[in-house]
Amino acid sequence: MSKGGASIPDEEWERFLREAEAGASGAPKEPSARARMVTERLRGESGQPQGWRTYPPARRRRRTPWYVVGVLVVLGLLVAAVAPERVVGWFGGGGGDSAPLAAESDRPSGPPGPGSGEQPTLAEPFRGSPAAQWANGVEGVNLPAAQATGWMSQEQVAQALARTQDFLTAANLDPGVLRGEQPEKAIALINPHQRDVQDYLAAAFRAPDRDSNPLLLFSRFAPAKARLVGNIVKTRGRVTYREGRRGALEVTADVTYVYPVVRATAGSDDVARTIVRRELVMSWDDPAKVVTEPGTFSLVSYKSDTTNGGCDNTTGYFIPTFRSEHAAEQGSGQQVDPYDRSKPMDTRMLEGGQDKCGTATRS
After folding, report:
1. Distance between CA atoms of 82 and 358, rounded to whole angstroms?
2. Hey, which of 55, 69, 131, 171 has its CA 20 to 30 A from 186?
3. Which whole number is the average pLDDT over 252-270?
4. Whole-prediction pTM value?
5. How many percent of the chain have pLDDT more than 70?
6. Which of 276, 269, 182 lies closest to 230, judged by CA?
7. What is the mean pLDDT of the chain?
8. What mean pLDDT do residues 117-123 have?
9. Residues 6+ apart with CB under 8 A from 103
10. pLDDT value at position 352?
């Protein structure tokens, strides 16, 4: 406020405001911005008000344009979807012993972080391993949403996916099977009319050898050699499906299982881990076109790659080695990372070298 080019002193202006509030004549009906500021300060303070010229100005904040924020958010979501292990690493979770990872919706872009390198214990059997961030049991297997495919309705596809999950559980997570029992529940889900598979199963449990090995489909430990630590198996993988031959529902399961074990002798505390990656392709056939039984599938293909289960093992059981034995167990093939799920299964199996046992970079 000025009069004839000269500024009115603060004291005179504030006196004017007090008189205006008391009802003096000539008071302005709409005070200026300066008047409102001083008035509010006078009302809110019990002491002498500070001069308005020395009132600390509000700090100006730079605002990021909304479209820039939108682009950054979209980029972050894309990275999280494609490589969630990298997002975890941004927040200090790359060591492998932090918050659980999001479900695997697609093949990752690279191997998981290096982990802390700490040795496993009976209390923490997944310590120092990327599996510490994986889900427990079948919860680590990501199932897709069901949609009508081939001869199956949406509801039938959902049932087939649920039975696929039942097979993975019965073949790889059932406590009795892990202790060396025969996987009867899993076998019951395989089409009994698929003659070549039934012959393989019969030979595998009667006289296992290189070609008829139950470990190609099922996880079993020799009860006299090793036992599981606790009742948790860590898993990571996904299930996908498409229309197959003759309109069948073709389902593919690509899952890695991590089993912590100790020697079977009482009091053993030397914890080791056996790591198994399996790719299983199954066909839920149209009974009008293929001889099958309700609720069973036909095996299309099965691949298995095992770390610390026994090199060239044809006993029908996993026989892991422990820290004191690792020097004698070194393989003659290339080095491989058993936690790396970024490569197709065919590529992964060739890494160790044909007819050779690869050397695992970690367990």
Report:
1. 28
2. 131
3. 96
4. 0.73
5. 69
6. 269
7. 80
8. 92
9. 135, 140, 142, 238
10. 60
Of 179, 185, 221, 215, the residue nearest 200 (C-alpha): 215
Give residue 114's region: left, alpha or beta (phi > 0; psi -120 to 50): alpha
Q: Which positions ≥6 away from 265 have C-beta within 8 Å? A: none
User: Residues 51-63: what's their mean pLDDT?
Assistant: 34
Helix axes 10-21, 33-44, angle to 10 degrees: 80
Per the DSSP assignment, residues forming a β-bridge with 257 are 235, 276
Report the pLDDT value the prediction gives residue 207, as an integer from 0 to 100: 95
Indicate the burial class of 363 (C-beta count within 10 angstroms; 0-12, 13-18, 19 or more). Answer: buried
Q: Label each residue of 88-130 as H, E or C.
A: HHHCCCCCCCCCCCCCCCCCCCCCCCCCCCCCCCCCCCCCCCH
Closest CA to 186 of 297, 279, 303: 297
Say if CB 258 and CB 275 are below 8 A apart.
yes
In order of 32, 155, 160, 241, the CA distances from 148 in angstroms are 70, 8, 11, 11
Q: Which of 247, 283, 248 is nearest to 164 (CA)?
A: 283
Q: Is the pLDDT of residue 145 over 70?
A: yes
**How does residue 354 score in pLDDT terms, banded at 50, 70 and 90?**
low
Provide the 8-state DSSP code for 334: -
Per DSSP, the three-state class of 142 is strand
